[in-house]
From TrEMBL:
GO terms for molecular function: guanyl-nucleotide exchange factor activity. Pfam families: PH_16. Keywords: Guanine-nucleotide releasing factor. It comes from Labrus bergylta. This is PH domain-containing protein. One of its GO terms (biological process) is regulation of Rho protein signal transduction. The keyword rRNA-binding does not apply. The keyword Repeat does not apply. It comes from the Eukaryota. Residues 106-208 form the PH domain.
Amino acid sequence: MHDDNLFETPTKLSVGTPSKPFWSFFNGSFKGAVISHYSISQEYSDLSRALAQIRDVIAAVDLTVNKYERCQELQEVLARLENKSFAKLKNGKVFRKQDLLLKNRDLQYKGLVYWKTATGRLKDTLALLLTDVLVFVQEKDQRFIFAAVDQKPPVIPLQKLIVREVANHERGMFLISASSAGPEMYEVHTTTKDERNAWMRQIRQAVERCVFACV
């Protein structure tokens, strides 16, 4: 005997429209999740833009503060610089105290360095790196005057200025001025190697930024 039920046609599965609760979930919870995700993404994007704007504002404030501080430092030097002191440049021009106050001439960097003389002596000088020139002044009777070393100009134009390390002297650097008025070379030393490297970096950056010459 055989069971007739084995030969019965299988019951077809229903593949019609899913039940209402499923579509309610799709149209409700899933759509809400998509909208919520979009809202979060939009908020994140807005927040990122706001943070970027805040960073830009902080950077601008820092730049303004640094510029003001450098201006104050230059004013302090000028207050001690003798009015009658002057420097004769390679091209024959005279550089005076008031020339440090030109509108487009700002202090970029300053510090104590040692200018090596022809006899090998290191002379204390204060170096002022400005927008277009490097100036050396020295202290005399608690005042400043333009430095006088080996009859070399204490004011060096940044245009065509080359900076090189001194071989076997990690704290020394050569400043080579290749101006049209005639070449001139200076040997300057610092207290540490890091200071020397900082000066070389600052001078090179100033040379790259220099777009005008007033000397």
